[in-house]
C-alpha cells in the first residue's frame, strides 16, 4: 500500500470500504470476464449485506462491473446505466465463512465467458481478492496483474516468465495453483509494468491456454 | 514501516516517508508530490461546496451542519476552532451527498485531515504548496498504522477510522508548524491513545450520524494533539504499542459495535425509527437523490 492509497482515493461518497472498495471489486470482475457483463449474481457477506444499502455498495459494485472508476460521477446512477447496457443483476445475502466482514462473491456471465470472484474490501478503498473461479488466490490490484487459465502442462511457467523477461518486465509476485495434476491451472502474476498487446496475443494462441486476462493496476500508488 | 522508524528519521519526516515509499513502489517522488497537491485541491473543493450547501443528504439526517456553523456568529471568539470544525463537516456532508471527496484514510473519516490541516493553514494564511509535505507525512502515518490493523469500522470500530485520521492529521499539523519527526509521531500517538475504544454505530448504517459531527470533533482533537506535541509533551506509551493496543481492542469489540448498526446510537428509539423509515421506502432511492443534487448544483 502506498501513500496515495492512504490519502486517497479521490472518490464519490459515502464510504471508502463500501463504495470505492466495492467499485474496485466490481472492476476486478469487469476485467476478469473480459467482455460486457450480461448477468451478475452478487452475494453480499456480513457488513456488506448488513449496511451495504446505506453505503452505496450495490450501485458501486454495478458501477465497477460497467468499468467505472471510484471517482466517476456516474457511480450513483449505475443501475440505470446497467439496464441501458443490457446487464441483468441481482443481489442476495451470502455466508462466505472466515473472510473480512466487507466481502462479496460475484458470479458473472457474458456472451461467451463466465467468471466467479470472491473478494474483500479491507478499508480505505483497499481490496483483496481471495478466490477466482474456485482457485484460492491473493491479489490486491496494486500492480498490473496477468491471469492465465490453462491446462496444467510442463514448462508453461518457464515460457511465460521468459516471455516477460524478453519484454524487460519484472515480476513482483507469482502464484500458480491447479485443481489436479494435468487439470485446470491458474497462474497469477503481479507485474511492475504492463506487457505489450503482442505478448498478450501470443499467450492467447498457446494450445493449452484457456484464457488470458490483464487486470490493470486499480490502486493509486 | 513502523511509527518508530518515522520518529527516528532525519527531519523533515515527510521527506524520509516519501523516499521510503518511492523505493517500495517505484514511483517518482515528484509525481507523488504533484498528485498530493492535486488531492489537496480536491479536498479544498469539497470544503468550499460543503460550506455553501445546505442540501439534505438522502436520509435527511445531515446536510446543513457545516454551513450552519460557518454562517453562525463566532460567540466563543475562537476562529480557528470554528474553521476546523466547519471544514471537517463540510467534507463529510459532501460525502453524505455522494459528492467527490478524498478518502483520508477512509471516506467516513475524510473530513478530519482537511479540517485540521487546511483549517490551520487558512487560519495562518499558508499556501496549499506548504501542505504537500505535511500531507505526505499524514499518509505515511496512516500507512504505518495500517500495517498493524485494518482501517475500517467493520473490522476495528470507529477508533480504527477516526483514530487513524486524527493521528494522520495531528502529525501533519505538527510538521506544518515546524515540529521534529519525534514530535510529529508523538502527536499521532497522543491522538490515537485518546481515541481507543470508540465504536462504529452509524444510524441506519448510513455514514451520517454520528460520522459528520465526529469529524468536526476529531479534527479539533488532532489540532489539540499537535499543540501538546509542539510543546514537547509525549505519549507515555510508545507509539507502536498504542497501535497494537488499538488493534487488540478492535479484535475484542463485539460485532454489534462494528458498523453493523446492531448497537449503540443505531439502536436508540430514534435511530430505529430512521432505519424503519428508510427501509419502508419513504424516501427517494439513493441514486435519484445524488442525481437531483448534482442537477441542482449545476443550475445554481
UniProtKB/TrEMBL annotation, chain A:
Cofactor needs: [4Fe-4S] cluster
Catalytic activity: L-serine = pyruvate + NH4(+)
Enzyme category, top tier: lyase
Keywords: 4Fe-4S, Gluconeogenesis, Iron, Iron-sulfur, Lyase, Metal-binding
EC number: 4.3.1.17
Keyword Metal-binding: yes
Gene3D superfamilies cross-referenced by the UniProt entry: 3.30.70.260, D-3-phosphoglycerate dehydrogenase, domain 3
MF terms (GO), sorted A to Z: L-serine ammonia-lyase activity
InterPro entries in the cross-refs: ACT-like_dom_sf (IPR045865), ACT_dom (IPR002912), ASB_dom_sf (IPR029009), Fe-S_L-Ser (IPR051318), Fe-S_L-Ser_bsu (IPR004643), Ser_deHydtase_bsu (IPR005131)
Similarity remark: Belongs to the iron-sulfur dependent L-serine dehydratase family.
PANTHER family assigned: L-SERINE DEHYDRATASE (PTHR30182), L-SERINE DEHYDRATASE, BETA CHAIN-RELATED (PTHR30182:SF12)
Protein name listed in UniProt: L-serine dehydratase
UniProtKB/TrEMBL annotation, chain B:
Keyword hit for Lyase: yes
Organism: Deinococcus lacus
Cofactor(s) this protein requires: [4Fe-4S] cluster
Gene: sdaAA
Recorded family membership: Belongs to the iron-sulfur dependent L-serine dehydratase family.
Record domain Serine dehydratase-like alpha subunit: where: 14-266
Top EC class, one word: lyase
Protein's recorded name: L-serine dehydratase
Domain of life, source organism: Bacteria
Catalytic activity annotation: L-serine = pyruvate + NH4(+)
The protein's annotated pathway: Carbohydrate biosynthesis; gluconeogenesis
Keyword Lyase: yes
Gene Ontology molecular functions: L-serine ammonia-lyase activity
Keywords associated with the record: 4Fe-4S, Gluconeogenesis, Iron, Iron-sulfur, Lyase, Metal-binding
InterPro entries referenced in this protein's UniProt entry, alphabetically: Fe-S_L-Ser, Ser_deHydtase-like_asu, Ser_deHydtase_asu
Amino acid at each position: 500500500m502506498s501513500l496515495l492509497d492512504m490519502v486517497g482515493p479521490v472518490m464519490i461518497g459515502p464510504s471508502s470500504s463500501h463504495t470505492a472498495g466495492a467499485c474496485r471489486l466490481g472492476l476486478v470482475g469487469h476485467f476478469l470476464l473480459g467482455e460486457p457483463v450480461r448477468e451478475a449474481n452478487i452475494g453480499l457477506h456480513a457488513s456488506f449485506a448488513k449496511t451495504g444499502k446505506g453505503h452505496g455498495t450495490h450501485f458501486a459494485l454495478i458501477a465497477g462491473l460497467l468499468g467505472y472508476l471510484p471517482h466517476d460521477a456516474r457511480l450513483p446512477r449505475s443501475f440505470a446505466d446497467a439496464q441501458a447496457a443490457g446487464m441483468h443483476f441481482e443481489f442476495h445475502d451470502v455466508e462466505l465463512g472466515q473472510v473480512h466482514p466487507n466481502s462479496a462473491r460475484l458470479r458473472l456471465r457474458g456472451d461467451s465467458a463466465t467468471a466467479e470472484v470472491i473478494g474483500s474490501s479491507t478499508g480505505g478503498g483497499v481490496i483483496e481478492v481471495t478466490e477466482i473461479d474456485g482457485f484460492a488466490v491473493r491479489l490486491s490490484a496494486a500492480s498490473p496483474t496477468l491471469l492465465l487459465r490453462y491446462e496444467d502442462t510442463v514448462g508453461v511457467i518457464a515460457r511465460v516468465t521468459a516471455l516477460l523477461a524478453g519484454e524487460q518486465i519484472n515480476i513482483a509476485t507469482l502464484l500458480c495453483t491447479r485443481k489436479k495434476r494435468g487439470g485446470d491451472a491458474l497462474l497469477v502474476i503481479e507485474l511492475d509494468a504492463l506487457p505489450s498487446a503482442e505478448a498478450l496475443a501470443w499467450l492467447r494462441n498457446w494450445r493449452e491456454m484457456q484464457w488470458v486476462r490483464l487486470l490493470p493496476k486499480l490502486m493509486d500508488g | 514501516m513502523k511509527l518508530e522508524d518515522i520518529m527516528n528519521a532525519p527531519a523533515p519526516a515527510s521527506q524520509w516517508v516519501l523516499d521510503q515509499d518511492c523505493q517500495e513502489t517505484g514511483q517518482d517522488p515528484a509525481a507523488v508530490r504533484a498528485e498530493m497537491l492535486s488531492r489537496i485541491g480536491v479536498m479544498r473543493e469539497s470544503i468550499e461546496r460543503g460550506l455553501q450547501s445546505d442540501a439534505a443528504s438522502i436520509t435527511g439526517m445531515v446536510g446543513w451542519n457545516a454551513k450552519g456553523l460557518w454562517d453562525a456568529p463566532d460567540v466563543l471568539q475562537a476562529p480557528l476552532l470554528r474553521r476546523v470544525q466547519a471544514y471537517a463537516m463540510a467534507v463529510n456532508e459532501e460525502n453524505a451527498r455522494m459528492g467527490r471527496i478524498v478518502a483520508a484514510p477512509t471516506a467516513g473519516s475524510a473530513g478530519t485531515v482537511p479540517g485540521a490541516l487546511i483549517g490551520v493553514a487558512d487560519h495562518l494564511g499558508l499556501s496549499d504548496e506548504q501542505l504537500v509535505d505535511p500531507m505526505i507525512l499524514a499518509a505515511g502515518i496512516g500507512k504505518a498504522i495500517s500495517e498493524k490493523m485494518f482501517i475500517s469500522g467493520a473490522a476495528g470500530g470507529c477508533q480504527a477510522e477516526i483514530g487513524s485520521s486524527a493521528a494522520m492529521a495531528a502529525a501533519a499539523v505538527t510538521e506544518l508548524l515546524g515540529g521534529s519527526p519525534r514530535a510529529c509521531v508523538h502527536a499521532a500517538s497522543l491522538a490515537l491513545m485518546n481515541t481507543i475504544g470508540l465504536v462504529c454505530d452509524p444510524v441506519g448504517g448510513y455514514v451520517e450520524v454520528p460520522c459528520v459531527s465526529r469529524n468536526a470533533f476529531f479534527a479539533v482533537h488532532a489540532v489539540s494533539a499537535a499543540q501538546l506535541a509542539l510543546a514537547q509533551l509525549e505519549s507515555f506509551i510508545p507509539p507502536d504499542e498504542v497501535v497494537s493496543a488499538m488493534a487488540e481492542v478492535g479484535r475484542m469489540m463485539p460485532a454489534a459495535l462494528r458498523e453493523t448498526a446492531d448497537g449503540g446510537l443505531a439502536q436508540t428509539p430514534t435511530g430505529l425509527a430512521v432505519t424503519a423509515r428508510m427501509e419502508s421506502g419513504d424516501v427517494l432511492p439513493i441514486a435519484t437523490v445524488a442525481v437531483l443534487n448534482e442537477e441542482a448544483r449545476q443550475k445554481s
